[in-house]
Fold this protein.
Amino acid sequence: MSIFHYFSSNPDIRAKYIFNLIAPYYSKVDHVLQDKYQKTFEVLKAEFPIEGLTVLDIGTGTGAWAAMYELNKVGTINAVDFSEKMLAESQKKYPNIKFSLGNAENLSQFADNSIDIVTASYVLHGVKSDKRAKILSEMSRIAKKYVVINEFIGKTPAFVRFLEFMEKSDYKHFKLHFEQEIQPYFNKTNRIFVEYGTGLYIGYK
Ligand SMILES: C[S@@+](CC[C@H](N)C(=O)[O-])C[C@H]1O[C@@H](n2cnc3c(N)ncnc32)[C@H](O)[C@@H]1O
């Protein structure tokens, strides 16, 4: 892949280029994210017991979010991403997680209602609402019990806004509309603020 892919009109080609490029650096700093993710997990565990449940992590990247489930003693963990380089990093770090290459918009390798928790961390703000709808539909189809989304909530720090601008993500629309966007897919939804800029969106089946 070359720099020209950054300017591609196809958002998947651009995203894969960016994440393949940053994978080794992301992998080196993702422990910083994990300190924050642990706080989020305390909030999640107060919402419902996760021990022993099966998990599918969508857009797993270097595995930082999937690994938090492992640390918190869930059952089998599957994880998918469409960036080969991100997956190469996660596979090196977490041998007990089943990583595979896949596009979150079509996860036909996973059956309907087959996994207790289907989850994604900082994936859905990165894509436009039409793609978000396809990914949400897949997450809701595969989930037996819960969809757990770790994402931006409310005002975000300036450096995050700069990174999202460079990534050409959809985070502004995401923050404004996501709470409404997820409602049609579930019996009940919950938006839980955790700390400055972050929180959980949970869908209950
Ligand atoms: C910002 S990273 C987040 C990684 C990880 N979930 C975390 O919290 O550290 C977003 C990840 O989503 C992946 N991704 C984005 N769109 C995707 C899609 N349609 N299918 C699969 N992976 C996708 C990217 O390749 C990237 O690894």
Q: What stands out?
A: The beta strands are 55-58, 77-81, 98-101, 115-121, 143-152, 188-195, 198-204.
